Amino acid sequence: MEDTKMEDSSNQREMSHEEMPETHSKGGLITMPFIIANESFEKVASYGLVPNMILYLIKDYHMGVAKGTNILFFWQAATNFTPILGAFVADSYLGRFLTIGLGSICSLLGMILLWLTAMVPQSKPPPCDLMTQTCSSPTSAQMTLLFFSFVLISLGAGGVRPCSLAFGADQLDRRDNPKNVRVLESFFGWYYASAAISVLIALTGIVYIQDQFGYRVGFGVPAILMLLSALVFFLASRFYLKQQASKSLLTGFFQVIIVAYKNRNLTFPLPNSTASYHHKRDSNVVAPTDKLRFLNKACIIKNPEQDIALDGSAANPWSLCTVEQVEELKALIKVLPLWSTGIIMSINLSQNSFPVLQASSMDRHLTKKFQIPAGSYGMFNIISLALWVIFYDRAILPMASKIKGKPVRIGVKLRMGIGLFLTCIAMVVSAIVENARRKEALRSGFQNNPTAVVKMSAMWLVPQFCLNGFAEAFTAIGQTEFFYSELPKSMSSIAAALFGLGLAVANVLASVVVSIIDDITSKGGKESWVSSNINKGRIDNYYWVLAILSFINLFYYFLCAWAYGPTGRQATKVKSIAG
User: Fold this and answer.
1) CATH number of the domain that residue 78 is part of
2) How far apart, in whole angstroms, are the C-alpha atoms of residue 577 and residue 579?
């Protein structure tokens, strides 16, 4: 028996010795162009569809502004919510490689269907009758086809977006490397910069194509780009470091909650009694932390003979959990309050329809012959984000480090706070600019003509986009880095998807806010603030509501940041100093 054990141990050592070179030979910088290209093409394709979609729904599907805006809010909500599902599927079942691949295929199919709505006349309502001024509503089948294309695109985004960042980090992440923190920080920054450039191309190139050549070409180009995205990703399959999926994290979270409740009457073991807690073999974590202590009862061993199987695992995972399961749930619960502080900023960032309508009614000419498409002004958000990332990574940090004589970095919580403050200012600026635009429209006699162009440059919209771009650069990158560093590595896809989940919640809440404001302000036959006629409406007041909510949220963030305490890195520094 002992000889067999010795042979098995020897075989395991030989296998691990043989596998190590293969593992270390995969991944690394060689995979970065393929991973980044995959998501970049996906972003150019999908983001290029959003800006002009409100105009497509109004003109081709004969929808009102409020209905079209709410449909787009829900589509964006689905697009931002599916990444959290994709993250669970990747971490628990398929692994990141397969999830990204399937997501790319889903997006491709969705874009082909959307392109068909522009190509096939029967797939949408006929043009309005100019003689009778009547428009036919879309049929159920036509709306189903449109919505199904939206669903496939959202599912595709759910597979690509949460896993791409984590998949790239898997190729580079070496936590035994002392420079690992700086490598990851630089990777996150450049990843967002490349993503920003992709969105910039989408907001300029794709939107311009739609304006100049129509939706048949404008929807066909994204479909071709999505095909390239899938091909590029699968082309480098043999170079990737593919980590296998572990057991379902979602199931593990439910197990911890249920077992902790079942064991609620158990007494806690003595402080130094680590043998009373169930943990994985060769685990560095042998006892749970004291925070959220009531959950610790989920991993208390009541009867070793009954609770533990022969292989050391739990005989019944619904009666006994591991310390690792408990700590994973604790880590997720702990970051949720800080995660929630980004929702209001995401509501502000999701305001796509109203700025497009504003820009359509303003002078967009740069020269006598060229004017910026109304849907392209969001590019200033992306430009400011990308410029800040490059300036921060290549100028501010090196200069500060040179002056101090040691590596310098701005803490993630400070960066998130700065971003939330900037989005408050962005909403104030938005309200002031819209108030000036509306006054100019009324002064020109355009009260009943929302499509008339006022004598006011659309470049006045640029400051609010730039402020929101800086806000996103601080908060979005800061939150992603915060989640990735505070959550266990087994939850890295969830860490990457949490910001997207915030966007999803924000899109739903944005729709709720629009509906509430529309209902309240239109009572008694009054003109709604979010009227289809933006000259009669009061979008400026709508922006003021968002500004007030943003300032309230800023104080809520201060409270959550204080309650969270030091981050993992700060806590490590404190411990080392105390030691």
Assistant:
1) 1.20.1250.20
2) 5
